Amino acid sequence: MATTNLTVESFGKTIAGNDIVFVDFWAAWCGPCRMFAPVFEAASQKYPDIVFGKVDTEVEQQLAAAANITSIPTLMAFRDQILVFSQPGALGGAQFEQLITAVKGLDMDEVRESLDAQDAAATA
């Protein structure tokens, strides 16, 4: 599967409608973004069971602001509609492969329990 361009209108639906979604926040003028683009595209071809979305921060400024993007490229990973990874900076191919493997291997019951515990502690 090729990468998908995400917009304000499609972002939420994409996250809600897929098990795993990686999102690359980028801009055309950004050198590290251009370096990471082929790595991201190659992964999208290798893992057709995962959605790989791209957000052009120049075009989708409202979406970038809502996602609190302050540095690009920023990579986010969602699993079962939960943000499980968010980090600025371009990854190399091996690093991105490790991240994909880690996200696929997450025990989402443990993740949800941990989030519930954090919520309980915050409201106590």
UniProtKB/TrEMBL annotation:
Residue ranges of domain Thioredoxin in the record: 1-105
Pfam families given in the database record: Thioredoxin
Keywords (A to Z) from UniProt: Disulfide bond
Keyword Zinc recorded: no
PROSITE patterns in the cross-refs: THIOREDOXIN_1 (PS00194), THIOREDOXIN_2 (PS51352)
UniProt superkingdom: Bacteria
GO MF, any single term: protein-disulfide reductase activity
InterPro entries tied to this protein: Thioredoxin (IPR005746), Thioredoxin-like_sf (IPR036249), Thioredoxin_CS (IPR017937), Thioredoxin_domain (IPR013766)
PANTHER family reported for this sequence: THIOREDOXIN-LIKE PROTEIN 1 (PTHR46115)
UniProt name for this protein: Thioredoxin
Species of the source: Agromyces bauzanensis
